[in-house]
Amino acid sequence: MEQSQQQQQLRSVLVTGGAGFIGTHTVLQLLKEGFLVTIIDNLDNSVPEAVDRVRLLAGPKLSLNLRFFIGDLRNNEDLEKVFSDTKYDAVIHFAGLKAVGESVAKPSLYYNNNLIGTINLYEHMAKYGCKKVVFSSSATVYGQPEKIPCVEDFEPRAMNPYGRTKLYLEEIARDIQKADPEWRIILLRYFNPVGAHESGQIGEDPIGIPNNLMPYIQQVAVGRLPELNVYGYDYPTKDGSAIRDYIHVMDLADGHIAALQKLFTTEDIGCVAYNLGTGYGTSVLEMVAAFEKASGKKIPVKLCPRRSGDATAVFASTERAKKELGWSAKYGVEEMCRDQWKWASTNPYGYRPQS
Ligand code: NAD
Ligand code: UFG
């Protein structure tokens, strides 16, 4: 036990996109688990303050184990700088653009950033002999599922350019691993990440009007937006609104630690996908009610037509992650809303002071 803890303390992990929403929460957990962590992030969708807060939460001792490079995965010089002075045991690859609507308007930006950034990263990993990676995939690869729960073996599909980047990057990972079996790759398909660290010090801080449900609800609750548009009230569900599998971001963070342990201990893992979800579906109107309860705030809603491309109901099969990673989600919707409200109420304008 003591020896394995010591070995783990020496392990070094590169986290791309580590200044972002899921990245910050995962970096904090990695530090707490005794990893040495290096972040590379170009701050396209994040701010240095987020990393400063992670340092504060980790405390003076553990924060010495965190390094932060501002850099872009598409820039070889930035990657050379990050790889040339440290030997990493593994990479967690979060960096990418993720807004579905923007990807439809600017497909080449998405293909350029997500595909070229990732290929560049893998080339540098191979060059420097680091062949273990946990990749951020998404439930988006299930498209509008014909059956639920979504099982990892379903044929992947994509509904938009963002989804296609995830689909192609999963395929690229499989090809790379097939060509060189030394690679060990885990593709984590996140369902709907929400919530925040229980301290309320770090959380999701989207730029502009939020696209996703929970950040939108949060901004209505703090008075930044007047009401929530509920997209679709005639779905064949219990209350007519669409159903998703919301997962607490701290559960996701722990899922990454479980995936890393799996990579370190399983020589023949190959390239394998795992769902990270709770296995439970919650409707939009149920999420609104849960957030109202957690915050004590009324969320005015306007019932609107369905959003194009949205599925009726999506939730995860959690069996494979439970069986093979020994991981399952601990938190429910109540804790997700409680912690998101703590973040929202203490930081109504996120990391940026109100301008
Ligand atoms: P985020 O935008 O908060 O974090 C991504 C980070 O990557 C940002 O800090 C951004 O500045 C950085 N980045 C982007 N392109 C980069 C580049 N070329 N070089 C260096 N840094 C770059 O997003 P998130 O919610 O934390 O998501 C992390 C990953 O998980 C993404 O790949 C996303 O597609 C995936 N994912 C997210 C969700 C979700 O709903 N949040 C769901 C499924 C999958
Ligand atoms: N919704 C509203 N009003 C809003 C925002 C969302 O009613 O203002 C509804 C949507 O119509 C949907 C549900 O809330 O029914 C959830 O929507 P989100 O945009 O929060 O999440 P999605 O499930 O549509 O998609 C998100 C990402 C995808 C990713 C997926 C799973 O945008 O890229 O989660 O990870 F694939």
From TrEMBL:
Transmembrane segments: none annotated. Residues 14-339 form the NAD(P)-binding domain. Its cofactor is NAD(+). One of its GO terms (biological process) is galactose metabolic process. InterPro entries: NAD(P)-bd_dom, NAD(P)-bd_dom_sf, UDP_G4E. Keywords: Carbohydrate metabolism, Galactose metabolism, Isomerase, NAD. It comes from the Eukaryota. It catalyses: UDP-alpha-D-glucose = UDP-alpha-D-galactose. The keyword Repeat does not apply. Belongs to the NAD(P)-dependent epimerase/dehydratase family. NCBIfam families: galE (TIGR01179), PRK10675.1 (NF007956). This is UDP-glucose 4-epimerase. It comes from Ensete ventricosum.
